[in-house]
Structure formats: structure tokens, C-alpha cells
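C-alpha cells in:
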């Protein structure tokens, strides 16, 4: 897929206010600092695209981008901010939860995981939530360039093995690096394929 247009549409905290265009939608989420903005910029070949949603006040919102006039890329708030008070955290989870439960055109969620880390409770709980709500997701391992290839392979294999303790089958996974561009083609080909598969439902 060639990225011909990547346009910021809106930010909001209420799924009912999200864009009405009937286009397939892909959400990006992960712990803060996982490399989400870098990945979005790398995929879109835009230096500053995800900066729009990274501006003060917007990191806690649902940010919609329209890509090639064909699909939406949704940049969701990073979870696991230690500094968010309990009260704020509840509100945060509530509107994100609503987004996932109510956004009908959401076709796939990309859960970003830092390649260097072992499974963390917050990520596993989030995947559990997606599973329980039958929301399709893929795992995207980020920052692959930070480990040597044998350590990287070992780490990914071990991560998947641990997931199989609770999951019967593994979701699709991608290995990416925003520094080297690793995984870009595979990732965009996947979205292209899904867009084609779901086209008839979006007529
Ligand atoms: P976000 O908070 O999830 O949006 O994370 P950012 O994209 O802002 O990245 C957090 C930090 O990790 C920044 O210092 C990035 O430069 C760095 N980073 C992100 N992706 C990569 C990557 O693929 N490789 C390397 N080496 N560093 C990365």
C-alpha cells in the first residue's frame, strides 16, 4: 500500500462523536513510551503525523486520521500512566472501553509491545478485555532494533510461549522497528488485505 494521503480528522473523548464515514478502522494502543507515535509516523512516512495527537491535551483522547480516503487510523491514549490519579484513570478507562465496545467499524486493534519486555500484567489484562469482547487484535512488537537478532528471537518466542498459557491460539504478530523501517511492508500489506476482505461490508 502506498500512503497517498494521511489527514488528521479529529480528537475526542466520546465514541458517539467519532467520524461518521463508514470506513474500516484500525486502532493503535499500548503502554506509554512503547513507540506508538514513532510507529505511526514510520508507517505513514510522515515525520510529525502522530505529533498532532501527542500534543498536550490530546494524548488522552481518541485521535482519528483518515488514510488514503480509505481507512481510519486511530491513535488511542497510552495506558499505564503512573501519574494519573485513580479517579482520572477510571474516566480514562471508561471512554476507551466504550470506544472498543461501540465502534462498529473497528476491524482490528494493534496492541503494541516493546520487544525487550516480558509480558506485563497491564498488557495481558488489556488483551483479555479484547478477547472477552470479541475484538480482533494483533500484537505489534516494537523497537526490534534494540536487541540483537538471537536475543530478539528468544524474547519473542518466550513472549508467545507465555501467552499460550492463557490463550488457545496466538493472534497475528508483527515485528517492527521505527528506526530501521522493519515490518512496514508486512504491516501495510496486512491492512490492505483486511480492507479488501471487508470491502463488501462497507458498501
Ligand atoms: P509513545 O509514547 O508510545 O508514542 O512512544 P514514542 O514513539 O514517543 O517513543 C518513545 C521513545 O522510544 C522515543 O525516545 C523514541 O525515539 C524511542 N523509539 C520508538 N520507537 C523506536 C524504535 O523502533 N527503535 C528505537 N531504537 N527507538 C525507538
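Residues out:
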Amino acid at each position: 500500500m502506498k500512503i497517498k494521503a494521511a489527514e488528521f480528522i479529529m480528537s475526542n473523548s466520546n465514541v458517539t462523536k467519532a467520524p461518521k464515514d463508514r470506513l474500516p478502522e484500525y486502532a493503535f494502543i499500548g503502554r506509554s513510551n512503547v513507540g506508538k507515535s514513532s510507529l505511526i509516523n514510520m508507517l505513514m512516512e510522515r515525520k510529525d503525523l502522530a505529533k498532532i495527537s501527542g500534543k498536550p491535551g490530546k494524548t488522552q483522547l481518541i485521535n482519528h486520521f483518515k488514510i488514503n480516503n480509505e481507512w481510519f487510523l486511530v491513535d488511542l491514549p497510552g495506558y499505564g500512566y503512573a501519574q494519573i490519579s485513580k479517579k482520572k484513570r477510571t474516566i480514562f478507562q471508561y471512554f476507551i472501553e466504550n470506544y472498543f465496545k461501540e465502534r462498529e467499524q473497528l476491524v482490528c486493534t494493534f496492541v503494541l509491545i516493546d520487544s525487550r519486555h516480558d509480558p506485563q500484567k497491564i498488557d495481558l489484562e488489556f488483551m483479555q478485555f479484547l478477547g472477552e469482547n470479541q475484538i480482533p487484535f494483533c500484537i505489534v512488537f516494537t523497537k526490534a532494533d534494540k536487541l540483537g537478532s538471537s536475543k530478539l528471537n528468544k524474547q519473542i518466542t518466550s513472549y508467545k510461549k507465555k501467552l499460550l498459557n492463557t490463550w488457545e491460539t496466538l493472534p497475528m504478530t508483527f515485528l517492527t522497528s521505527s528506526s530501521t523501517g522493519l515490518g512496514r511492508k508486512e504491516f501495510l500489506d496486512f491492512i490492505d488485505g483486511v480492507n479488501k476482505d471487508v470491502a463488501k461490508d462497507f458498501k
